Amino acid sequence: MxxxxxxxxxxxxxxxxKSNESxxxxxxTLDYVNANNMSFVDGFLYFTEAxxxxxxxxxxxxxxxxxxxxxxxxxxxxxxxxxxxxxxQQIYDLNSLRFIEKQENVIFYGNSGVGKTHLATAIGIxxxxxxxxxYFIKCSDLMDTLRKAQLEGRLxxxxxxxxGYKLLIIDExxxxxxxxxxxxxxxxLVDRRYERNSTIITTNIxxxxxxxxxxxxxxxxxxxxxxxxxxxxxxIKGKSYRLQSLYNMDEDSKS
Length: 255
Prior knowledge:
Layout: H1 6-16, H2 20-36, H3 40-66, H4 88-95, H5 98-101, E1 105-110, H6 116-129, E2 134-138, H7 139-151, H8 155-164, E3 167-173, H9 180-193, E4 198-203, H10 210-214, H11 217-228, E5 231-236, H12 241-254
Parallel strand pairs: 1-4, 1-5, 2-3, 3-4
Helix pairs in contact: 2-3, 7-8, 8-9, 9-11
């Protein structure tokens, strides 16, 4: 006769089956079943539902991790009182992801340090948590990736990958100049995503000056035309969070 307890054998069986979700919820299930004097069927239903919830949580975590966010930022952490030019209700509407369902774009425009990347990241994390394929990349890194892919003969493959995300976040457009040849690569990506998937862009350059970024007025015009059609432009006029933090640190050091 096997003297091993039933509980130990259950754990061993789940380990053998590599049922990680089950292992994480088995104790919680047994405690709940005992506390509520549940039947086998009701207890097993609770057990399977707990596994489903655990698996969903793991998938959400994986989606966020794969999106490439440099930092985890949420809207709850954003200081709307500090940036009074922002329409808070508009941001929460964007965070509802309605713009993704409508294949629309979002452009965050403002000086450095005003919270553009924070807002873009927060909305992106919400999208990833809702299982919308999402990817975050700085504009300079995007251009390096596309340029390398072109040199290696893998540009169509790379464009297809970037075009396929339901939400692509391109951060810091305009912080570094883009060559005329690279502008053509950027246009190809924007054109592929146009009216198919949503793009969020953060920039500190006014649209009227984008021809200076891309080095070609015609290409810049085509890019702006596709990005602004079906888009929401959020203009942030305010002080830099980073400069304010440095100022506060300096004041603290004097006191």
